[in-house]
Specification:
two-stranded antiparallel ribbon; globular; 2 domains; 6 helices; Rossmann fold; seven-stranded mixed beta sheet
């Protein structure tokens, strides 16, 4: 089976990019990374791509008059690389409806909260302030509204009594690194059926795991 060619857009350290690179390097994984684009020349994620032998481009949004002009350059680079889908991985620019519409159903993003809770920034501090006992991350298809597209997958982690935003972020990030490649695989296998703002998985999947994550954990286990 031909592997899905993916463009990854980053702005920073690229630890999710690394998880995607690692997954794509595994035999039999149904996607490959054709290009990594950063809007910031100093993004350390660029080195991760280079170490993995993946082509990189810097397309600095500050070099363009407006968002559409910036996105035209992104689209041209993605087309040059033969990208068939796009993963946002810590990409800190808002995309317009034009770009989102052109990639609809083929544009994934990861967000560090259990959406629809805590869209936007500072999700870990906000989760702590809200006193939630479970937190996590979401991979979703990108829509015009910020952090609001159809949810593909989620991973939950407990919020522990002594957590700071930093310790909680680290726990969520480890979950992100597991969730994102898994969801990319589902996209690449063509198993995400979208209906409005909902997704449904086609084909067989593990429905046998109905364990609960209870936090605080009951003592009788
Ligand atoms: C991650 O927490 C991701 O969920 C959010 O931005 C962060 C990017 O981290 N969108 P990295 O660049 O992948 O390490």
């Amino acid at each position: 089976m031909a592997r899905l060619a993916v463009g990854v857009l980053i702005s920073g350290r690229g630890s999710n990019l690394q998880a995607l690179l690692d997954a794509c390097a595994r035999p039999g994984f149904p996607a490959k990374i054709a290009l990594v684009i950063s809007n910031r020349p100093d993004a350390s994620g660029l080195e991760r791509a280079q170490s993995a032998g993946v082509p990189t481009r810097v397309i600095d949004h500050r070099d363009f008059a407006d968002r559409p002009a910036f996105e035209t350059a992104l689209t041209a680079a993605l087309a040059d690389a033969g990208a068939e889908a796009v993963c946002l991985a810590g990409f800190m620019r808002v995309l317009t409806g034009g770009f989102v519409g052109a990639w609809r159903g083929r544009l994934l993003s990861i967000h560090p909260s259990l959406l629809p809770l805590f869209p936007g920034l500072h999700t870990h501090a906000r989760a702590l302030a809200a006193g939630v006992k479970l937190h996590g991350c979401t991979v979703h298809l990108v829509s015009e509204a910020l952090d609001d597209g159809a949810i593909v997958g989620q991973a939950a982690v407990p919020v522990l009594p002594d957590d700071t935003a930093e310790t909680l972020a680290a726990r969520v990030l480890a979950a992100e690194h597991q969730l994102y490649p898994h969801c990319l695989r589902l996209l690449a296998e063509g198993r995400i059926e979208v209906s409005g703002n909902l997704t449904r998985l086609t084909g067989a999947h593990r429905a046998d795991d109905t364990r609960r994550l209870i936090n605080p954990a009951p003592n009788d286990r």
